[in-house]
Write a structure and sequence with these properties.
Helix content is 35%, strand content 14%. It has 11 helices and 12 strands. Helix 2 packs across helix 9, helix 5 runs antiparallel to helix 6 and helix 8 runs parallel beside helix 9. The chain is globular and about 55 Å long. 50% of the residues are buried.
Length: 375
């Protein structure tokens, strides 16, 4: 392996669909919040206060405990200029750090390429779930995607399953970057993906834990991430997705379920690592492609702009970072969205520079303000 047990590890949790940040970290004493959300607002006596202006969603109590322990940084108003309300386009921008043109290189793929320049380990980056995040795509950089760790998942196993998975990957990204770059990428990385499966098979047999994860996809995904991390396979970046956060309707029920699953899975994951004395080098990033609009639509919320992110880990300087977006009408983006107050590329730069010890400029495409979030 080209990594050691003490090397910094990044765990990425993507909240797919656009998490409603305003009902995750709630401006519970702001009358504009209560006016804009008659159907979805939380009363002041329901929430979990952070200070006299902001509070956690009442269904995210475990995350409040992590914050109170000083192990969570809440990065407010994260986004980018002229935010796209398209799921595909906005996610693609977050994956590639390129808001203005169509790029093919993912930020994590480039980081993995720097961490493993000789391409010695196809498990330096591992995704848990179907398909492959665009973040991981970088020409010539081998990464692995696992649908089910116990059966060593997608892009591995039987040839027909692998071909079906590669075809799905091609359909996902060809509309944006053309089939040529997609197939070039697959031809250069596919064999490494297959070889990584043999090592991944070792992880479940090596794992023992007293933590009982939830049966939901995120709980099982983070359990798989813990098993791979604890197996010491040289993995530096682990990726899990959770959703759907696209709460246009029935948000009250859907978002409650999302908050419960997210909170439990994150706490279980870190408890598992703590029990194995394997948490100190792990940083978790929780992000979503955009926030929701200020006003509810009667049953849910529609696509917005500025959102929020979490950084979690023992090395985190806990607290509030950047500025919570203004709820004043004159400050809204598109006349109805919470505006972004901090560029996501600065968040990535902070992680790359302060945690992974990489030079971020070439990966994120410029110099962006970093947050001093890590000890």
């Amino acid at each position: 392996m080209n990594a050691t047990a003490s090397d910094p590890v990044l765990v990425v949790v993507q909240l797919t669909g656009g998490n409603d940040f305003m009902n995750t970290v709630i401006p519970y004493t702001n009358p504009l919040y209560h006016d804009a959300r008659p159907g979805l607002r939380f009363a002041e006596d329901e929430v979990l206060p952070i200070n006299d202006t902001l509070a956690f969603n009442p269904h995210a109590a475990p995350l409040k405990d992590v914050y109170d322990a000083g192990k969570m940084a809440i990065v407010q108003g994260v986004g980018y200029p002229d935010s796209s309300r398209s799921h595909f386009r906005s996610s693609y921008i977050w994956h590639t750090c390129e808001p203005e043109t169509i790029a093919t290189e993912g930020w994590l793929g480039q980081a993995i390429g720097q961490m493993d320049p000789d391409k010695e380990n196809s498990l330096t980056g591992v995704n848990f779930g179907r398909g492959l995040p665009q973040s991981f795509v970088s020409k010539g950089v081998p990464v692995t995607s696992v649908g089910d760790l116990d059966n060593y998942g997608l892009l591995t196993g039987m040839a027909d399953r692998r071909e079906a998975s590669l075809e799905r990957f091609k359909r996902m990204y060809a509309p944006a970057i053309g089939t040529g770059p997609v197939m070039d990428y697959l031809s250069e990385t596919g064999q490494g993906v297959l070889s990584g499966a043999d090592d991944l098979k070792k992880a479940p047999a090596m794992y023992e834990s007293n933590v009982e994860y939830g049966s939901d996809l995120l709980g099982q995904g983070l359990r798989d991430a813990a098993r791979v991390h604890l197996a010491d396979l040289g993995t530096r970046v682990l990726y899990v997705s959770h959703g759907d956060y696209d709460t246009h309707s029935r948000q009250e029920l859907t978002h409650e379920k999302d908050m419960v699953e997210l909170s439990r899975a994150i706490v279980d994951f870190f408890q598992d690592l703590e029990d194995h004395n394997a948490a100190d080098n792990v940083l978790m990033l929780v992000w979503t492609e955009f926030g929701r609009r200020l006003a509810d639509n009667g049953s849910g919320t529609d696509h917005g702009s500025g959102g929020g992110a979490f950084l979690i880990g023992n090395m985190v300087n806990g607290g509030l970072y950047a500025e919570y977006p203004s709820l004043e009408q004159s400050n809204l983006a598109n006349g109805e969205d919470l505006a972004h107050t901090y560029d996501f590329r600065g968040l990535y730069s902070s992680i790359l520079n302060q945690h992974l010890d990489l030079e971020p400029t070439s990966i994120v495409g410029g110099d962006f303000e970093q947050l001093q979030v890590l000890n």
